Amino acid sequence: MTLNSHNPLALVAELTHRCPLHCVYCSNPLELQSRANELSTEVWSRVFQEAAAAGVLQVDFTGGEPLARPDIVDLVRSARAAGLYVSLITSGLPLDEAKLDSLVQSGLDHFQLSFQGAREETANDISGTKSHPHKLRVLQWLKRYRIGVTLNFVIHRRNIDELEEMLAIVEDSGAGCVEFASVQYYGWAFANRERLLPTRQQLDRCIELLNRAQERLRGKTRVLFVVPDYYAKFPKPCVGGWGRKLMLITPSGDALPCHAATVIPGLSFENVKNRSLLEIWDHSEAFQKFRGFDWMQEPCKSCDRREQDFGGCRCQALLLTGDACATDPVCSLAPQRPKVDAILAEINNPSASQPISIPSWLYRPNPA
Amino acid sequence: MTMEGNSRPRLAAGCRTGENNNQRMLLMPERALRLNGPSLEIVSRCDGQHTVAQIIAELQQIYSKAEPHKIEQDILGYLALLQKERALDFEL
Fold first, then answer.
1. Per the CB < 8 Å rule, is B14 touching A176?
2. Which of A2, A222, B43, B61 shows the greatest Cβ crowding within 10 Å of its Cβ?
3. Do B13 and A150 touch (CB under 8 A)?
4. Residue A51: how many CB atoms within 10 A of its CB?
5. Cα A308 from chain centroid?
6. What are A100-115's pLDDT values in tens digits?
7. Tell me: the pLDDT tens digits for B34-52?
8. Rounded to a whole number, what is the distance in Å from the CA of B37 to chain A's nearest CA?
């Protein structure tokens, strides 16, 4: 078999939905799976071998909090033995120095640590738990090892003005990469959107600061920024195109084309306990559904950009228009773009309409 | 950390080579590059031992039919790309 665009390249392994944090923008579905339904170590190990054989290069261990799995060190070892590049995407919370050492010895390639803010009070408010000081300790421990380190700051209205302080944390850490990832609005973030979406003024200042930081840190730290796509002119190429590059496995073993695919009505998902990864990739209804261009409506169908952005995000199309086949409404060419403009107008000109009544946070709970 | 003839490039933390279905790859956080022919020859010498000048000289020997100056320019261009991707450290 040769490497080509028909192979999955990245596997996202959602090892558990359990998490000590309760972030108000969590990308997990609103219906969380319980510990009793989680896949065993053995099934995950088989999945890693099947993934590598299918052409997958990299696996991202995520959750929930992947460190909540007592077998996390074994999982890292078996994914690495299968030939995969292993990333751990973590809050760093249930981590001590001995566990970090075991993870590195087992072949962990890349450690991605999430931050909810630069200041403790902000971070604790967003995550619904006291977590920030421990993350700073983890950053110090990481300096002892020669593994990839990425800091991930999830950006929104409440913390975007702390950007300079975030950059100070980054520079002190010596990390090879930092991602300033704006919240995108699905699941828990969709429910909390009114309090999370930044203003245009905040966003402009953020972009200016990050352009300068990119210059300053060139050759030391890659500085990446993901714009909140409500403010974009064209949609993001969500998951690199449906069923083109990425496969996500939920804690109970369902294979999904993207994090949020369960919100799309009528899609049925196959489980890795019943079928091989490659069979699911090639044949399952969920992966076929929006693969390629046949499902597209106008203006996507005849658009020159369809091979760049693949029509944008199906879940966002569903959430904002009620139709998962519609052009992603953040696209400036989309017939439903006015809906997004109305949301932005309300955020940016609150005095023009009713005064905004800000609802309180909807925190993500911990499943059983 | 600039790229000079006597500096010694080394794959940065979190970057390593790997193989998938007989294709050599440079694996990096969240991304990967295919390695073929000259790119594989270059990356396999980014070991903290070879200097940039040595890498250039060795590739000029391997590809002795190509114009030496062109090889030098291609190697410097490729190393600059890897540096921009944060895939290299340069040690003196």
1. yes
2. B43
3. no
4. 28
5. 20
6. 999 999 999 999 999 9
7. 999 999 999 999 999 999 9
8. 17
